[in-house]
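Notes, p. 3: input format for complexes.
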Amino acid sequence: MSEFAELATQVMARCEMLGTLSQNPNCLDRRYLSEQHRLANQLASGWMIEAGMTTWQDAVGNIWGRYTSTVPNAPRLILGSHLDTVPNGGKYDGMLGVVAAISMVAMFDGLQRKFPFHIDIVGFCDEEGTRFGTTLLGSRALTGNWQESWRHLKDENGISLAEAMEQFGLHFDEVSSASISRTDILGYLELHIEQGPVLEQENLPVGVVSAIAGAKRFNITIEGMAGHAGTVPMSMRYDALAASAEMILAVERISQQRTGVVATVGKIDNMPNGVNVISGRTRFSLDVRSEDDTLRDEALAEIMQHLGEIGAKRNVKLSVEHI
Ligand SMILES: [Zn+2]
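Output follows (323 residues plus zinc ion):
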């Protein structure tokens, strides 16, 4: 077996090991500040030490390893990904980017290869926001964007973020010490699985991310008039759900007709939501994304124009909230 094949085998085996650290026996689920988070940090830290790195856990719970440069005041190249998961997100999402980086450093260490920069590997403690409903807690602590108001965020068992940090051995008030300086960072590189079908369909082993699609999101409320399904004639109805259906299809059609834009209505609430009641009010989400802000905003303008026309034609009230 070639050296690269051995490394690849090691990466896959380590993803399997991390994949066993789950708070749910039925699927992989590893959340911020859980016992499994602690164990994952320990496992990753052990592998980092084996690869010739020095390790530390920062004040928010990210695990770090450094392959130290011999050059004085060397800048840092940061590699890594997240070690938390969404429920049943699979054993490669996040983990692959941490363990592959560790195996790469182990290879350099074996070759006694040194660099004019530190290679720092980070395993982010919270990217998904599954436990406290707020995403990217690990990386926001690094960038100094930690919010005082998060202190009282609660998980599904009513445990606050501040309490959970104490139980883990961290302190909410000390998170600012996890922030890092921008001036000595050479770059950040993350290997991540594709969360879509394109590479597989095109039979490509890897893709390079050239841009991250910026999203705009809205809550759209349609107010019509509720009424009895048996007694209100079709010509006298202001059916919010039927109007919403027409609007949702317009969103799909407009984004299909354009390139480089995706638009999604993924959530809808309907009131009163009864089998024999004409819908009086709906609320649906709209998520529009593109790598190019201009393309996105042009699509959005066309979508909003159509929604307005459909609302006017059907005599329902449309309100748009940018979130
Ligand atoms: Zn991920």
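Helices lie at 3-18, 35-50, 95-110, 137-142, 161-168, 198-202, 240-257, 293-313.
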